[in-house]
Give the backbone structure.
Amino acid sequence: MESTARQLYELNHNHDNSLKEFPYIVRWKDHRCTRCGRCTAVCPVKAIVPAVKVKRFVQSEGDMPMPSVSRKVIQVVEQVTDMDRVCVGCATCSLVCPNDAIEPEFNPQNKFLFYKNKGGEGYKRGGRRNDPSVSTLDRLKFTRISMLTDPALDAGRHEFKIRSFLGRILPAEELPIKIVDGKLALENHIEKFIPPVREIFPIMIGSMSIGALSPHMWEGLAMGVSYLNEVEGLPVIMCSGEGGMPPKLLKSRFLKYFILQIASGYFGWDEIIHAIADMVEDPAGIEIKYGQGAKPGDGGLLMAQKVMNLIAKIRGVPMSVDLASPPTHQTMYSIEESVAKMIQSMSMAFGFRVPVYPKISGTKTAKSVLNNLAKNPFASALSIDGEDGGTGAAYNVSMDKMGHPIASNIRECYLDLVRQGKQNELPLIAAGGIGKKGNLAANAAALIMLGASAVSIGKYIMQAAAGCFGDEYNRCNLCNTGYCPRGITTQDPKLYRRLDPDKVAERVVEIFKSADVELKKIFAPMGRSTELPIGMSDGLSIDDKAMAERLEISYAC
């Protein structure tokens, strides 16, 4: 009978997972724990639970001690072995524990991905690709340091203006100006279309939608951007992402600091179109999203658990349904059609006063898109999102195995413009993995010197302004689930109330002010103070011959 029971037990548990299969193993110290229950209460995925166990104790007492055995029921914190409640290593439990009694430990021998695909569906995650290696951007060095040959500048005392432009810049011979009595004057009769241009800070906040981000996170970013413009005098702009914007913001004077994004799902655009008549300011630009660097060739996805009442209202959709954007706009099937329809129609909607440009994934076909845009007078820029871009939800295989690095992609596009004699006329915006190791200003400066007019950041601002737990070791990556333990990418009030929007705004201001100082430190030895060194690749070197040859920069070791 006992043998039969054991066989049944082994049969039922033979397919269970052990903790060795999990990416993180929770280490709990019994002697430190006071059983307060904070850790189990805050775990976003319920990977740890309070439990009771019978423990065997061996004791020896008295002058002639004889070992005695007793059993006691004790309370423990236990890690569950259910793959649907796997510990993600966010360490929220460690954050709230008053006695350092618990922490997750990375398990390099895990077999997580072998067990995660269920029901024939690929594993989805948020965050960024799992690649802890040093990126090309972090290997680039600035080696043009002027001493006695060129006039180097004092970064601390010299007057600088670190600015770029969003919008097509006409060549000198096409500008609507003439010389009158030795002075420049505007022509009275302008027959040629003059593209709209915005002066911006060369680092912008990339497209992260209301829905992908929590209300408190988005509010904090918006307040920080407005403060930077109105108090600090830094013209930082922010993209709304697909999903619309709060109606009050659309009708406020702060709209001029925001780029409105329209994507293939058209979510939130009813609100925007209806608000055009009541807008007191034009937006900074219109971004038409065709692709994302983290999931090239794939559409966007806001999962049902994040489509709460506020998001459903702004986007004009039912609650608790998956919101999937198609991989391409369903009204367009070619680059030419896209330029003719979307860019021109959006320009018309705002009276040709607002820069309109597309955003594409980093890919070998980027040059084809660029060459088509260069022919169209209404195209204001091209944003290229490299493979290291973050996302709120994507298939694991897309994030880790698809895409194009941004450094070589932006470089080949810039050199293509150089061959056409149109460099710096059509601005290139670089995104994807900027500041991945914390070097925001250095990465931005490197991309500018490779040919970008501006760079766009997303994951970095979440990491630096709100303390995102995610990293390149599959840590956390709960952005898609609505269980973000920091309250950054969730619509659950119990979670996003953990985030203080005022603190987020303060950190956003500090980040951009420090980036401004560091950019000055980099550009000063090159003698650049009033214009960006766009395409100034002779100031860059790298310690890899193949990379140097690919980027057409100098090799130094």
Notes: The CA atoms of residues 130 and 472 lie 4 Å apart.
